[in-house]
Amino acid sequence: MSSIIANPILLTIPESFESKRLVIRAPLWEDGAMVNEAIKESIDELRPWMPWAGQIPTIEESEIISRQGRVHYLERSDLRLYLIDKTTGQFIGSSGLHRIDWQVRKFEIGYWVSTPFSGQGYITEAVERITYFAINELQANRIEIRCDSRNTRSARVAERLKFTMEGILRNDKCDVDGLLRETVVYSKVRGAEF
Ligand SMILES: CC(C)(COP(=O)(O)OP(=O)(O)OC[C@H]1O[C@@H](n2cnc3c(N)ncnc32)[C@H](O)[C@@H]1OP(=O)(O)O)[C@@H](O)C(=O)NCCC(=O)NCCS
Fold it and tell me: Phi, psi (5° rounding) for residue 132?
């Protein structure tokens, strides 16, 4: 399935949807403080893998990132999604559909969890629901998860959800210390996994 999009801003896309325990939604103005708090609590787990986590951002920097996330969502150029506990309203983590190719309808899912909520299946739940969203609302043809080959916790999310491991890209990127690293590519594609 493929269809040409004159301009993705014309796409009608929900800004919020739910899984069993989560509200999964586009960023909103004033989300910055909540996200900043989670980054502070999670910095030791984020730093090895996330290039933006070299140091704790200010609340204002987190607000800027959230507002940019909202603007990009509305443009349909990048679909960041915040994960909020349905019952408590607490911020659980961040995910989204990135590096979008609207012609191919290809998306890459990224994610991080706020450390107090790790090891409880929230990210697996969110990625499963976001995958469903991409297939059904965005007519995805290809959904990728990419991670550093040493990031076993991230790889386990992809494997738990039956993404297919397509290969390992050698010397693909530099890690946070500037050293060459390998990237594992997982995917689901229309006609094979869905
Ligand atoms: C990658 C990352 C998001 C994984 O977080 P996580 O807490 O392991 O992932 P989940 O929320 O899906 O939880 C899965 C764990 O909870 C357990 N779990 C408990 N209840 C569960 C449930 N209902 N469903 C699924 N898993 C459950 C699983 O057994 C699993 O633990 P295990 O891996 O020790 O077996 C986290 O390590 C992180 O934020 N890392 C830093 C940022 C990063 O590397 N991002 C990815 C870049 S590619």
Answer: -60, -45
d(CA 132, CA 168): 25
* Cβ of 114 less than 6 Å from ligand 1: no
Residue 59 forms part of a structural domain: yes
Query: Is residue 97 within 8 Å of residue 108, measured between CB atoms?
Result: yes
Distance 75 CA to ligand 1 centre (A): 30
Domain span at residue 105 reads 14-189
pLDDT for the residue numbered 6: 80
Q: What is the distance between the alpha carbons of residues 194 and 188, in angstroms, rounded to a whole number?
A: 7
Is 145 strand, coil or helix?
strand
Number of domains in the chain: 1
Q: What is the total residue count of the chain?
A: 194
Residue nearest to atom 16 of ligand 1 (CA): 119
Is 7 within the bounds of a domain? Answer: no
From the first residue on, what is the mean pLDDT of each consecutive set of 10 residues in the chain (194 residues)? 76 97 98 98 98 97 98 98 98 98 97 98 98 97 98 98 98 97 98 96
- Per-residue model confidence as pLDDT tens digits over 12-24: 999 999 999 999 9
